[in-house]
Design a protein that fits this description.
The protein has 178 residues and is an alpha+beta fold. The chain has 4 helices and 8 strands, in the order αβββαββαβββα. The strands form 2 sheets. Strands 2-1-6-7-8 form a 5-stranded mixed beta sheet. Strands 3-4-5 form a 3-stranded antiparallel beta sheet.
């Protein structure tokens, strides 16, 4: 997979007509009988809306302390050193169980921040994957948007029905097909 990034005013609308399957027909230099080889390339145009890391604010989580369980003897049974931190909007809960309540709170907040960010990033990735899958389809030759015929030096846009010189298209003059 190749990824290219472009920036500028209205860049997404400029590449909007490139979405879908593109058929590339060429005669390889090693082909002695002149048979045409056909490849398919799929194009998706996505916004580069990078995921932003969430910084938790104190009003977004609830901290509770409790007595620990397990071995530890009298100290564990008499102090509230176990810290339970709950992210209110997602319900993600982190329990840290050690000797020092302050250290448990510090470690718990770091772990909660990590888990909440993983939760939100996963949803962001799923939305991007669905949008990309919708744009490229199955990549079949029958879903073609354009055909690039190298041997004849032409490009055919199957949506608009326009033809253009392959040289002009490779120079970046995509507007010839719009």
């Amino acid at each position: 997979m190749f990824l290219y990034a472009f920036s500028g005013a209205n860049i997404k609308s400029y590449f909007q007509n490139e979405i879908g399957s593109h058929r590339w027909q060429r005669v390889p230099p090693t082909e002695s009988k002149g048979r045409v080889h056909t490849s398919t390339i799929t194009v998706a145009v996505m916004d580069n809306d990078d995921y932003k890391v969430v910084q938790l604010q104190p009003y977004e989580y609830r901290i509770e302390t409790t007595r620990g369980s397990g071995p530890g003897g009298q100290h564990r049974n008499t102090t509230d050193s176990t810290v339970v931190i709950t992210h209110i909007s997602t319900g993600i809960k982190v329990v840290t169980n050690g000797r020092c309540q302050h250290k448990n709170k510090e470690v718990g907040l770091i772990e909660l921040n990590k888990r909440v960010n993983d939760f939100y990033r996963t949803g962001h990735d799923v939305n991007n994957a669905e949008e990309r899958r919708d744009q490229i389809g199955k990549g079949l030759r029958s879903e073609k948007r354009r055909t690039y015929r190298v041997k004849d030096g032409i490009v055919i846009d199957h949506i608009t029905g326009k033809k253009a010189s392959l040289k002009n298209i490779l120079r970046g003059n995509l507007e010839l097909l719009h």
